[in-house]
Write a structure and sequence with these properties.
There is one protein chain. By secondary structure, the chain is mainly α. The protein has one domain. Helices cover 79% and strands 0% of the residues. It has nine helices and no strands. Helix 4 crosses helix 8. The longest helix has 35 residues. The chain starts with a helix and ends in an 8-residue tail after the last helix.
């Protein structure tokens, strides 16, 4: 993975960084913890201009987030609510969907802003933002701010660490796995609770 990322960054420069970060937002296993420190290191060596790398990375973050926001907006609350009425939809009940929507209505801005600085969540948070109908301008501004902070921090770390830039991924790699593990456990708990609740199927035979 690192060699592939290195090749794209060396071939396309700041544009390559932006494209990789866009992909990282849509396909979370592509790690920004590798892309951004590498960009910082390459900027330190003079191979990249740090003044173009950061805007390119942030633009990639915003564009990738908007793609997932669009997916969430297409799905929408009503469609998701109907899906939750079927027994085979084991991940959440209609009450869960309603509570989540209310929570996002009250605190969605904070959730989007803070989640942009948490591995894995920084990608998937765009979907509930779209489902809840958060205004796209507000979503874009919050995403740009949160992503800008994240990108600047890791580009800066790559610059500061120099040839040791790979240690950033070694630090944060386990954190990403913990976050994903907690999400999987949460989904399993929701599925088990839904199965035990025996909620009647809505609108199905």
């Amino acid at each position: 993975m690192a060699d592939w990322i290195f090749g794209i960054v060396d071939a396309l420069g700041a544009l390559g960084v932006g494209l990789l970060i866009l992909l990282e937002n849509v396909i979370p296993p592509i790690p920004s913890e590798v892309i951004l420190p590498l960009a910082g290191f390459r900027a330190r060596t003079g191979a990249l201009n740090v003044l173009t790398v950061w805007p390119a990375a942030t633009a990639g973050s915003v564009l990738g987030a908007l793609l997932l926001y669009g997916l969430g907006a297409w799905l929408g609350h009503e469609r998701l609510h109907r899906l939750a009425g079927h027994r085979w939809f084991v991940f959440a009940s209609q009450k869960d969907i309603d509570r989540g929507d209310e929570l996002f209505d009250r605190h969605g801005g904070k959730v989007v802003l803070l989640a942009r600085c948490v591995p894995f969540l920084r990608s998937v948070v765009s979907i509930p933002a779209g489902i809840s109908g958060m205004p796209v301008l507000r979503f874009t501004v919050l995403t740009a701010i949160g992503s800008g902070v994240w990108n600047a921090a890791f580009i800066g770390l790559g610059w500061a660490l120099g040839e040791n830039w790979t240690t950033v991924e070694q630090w944060l790699g386990p954190v990403s796995y913990v976050v994903i593990g907690l999400l999987v456990v949460g989904l399993v708990v929701l599925a088990v609770r839904r199965r035990r609740s025996g909620q009647p199927t809505v609108g199905s035979s």
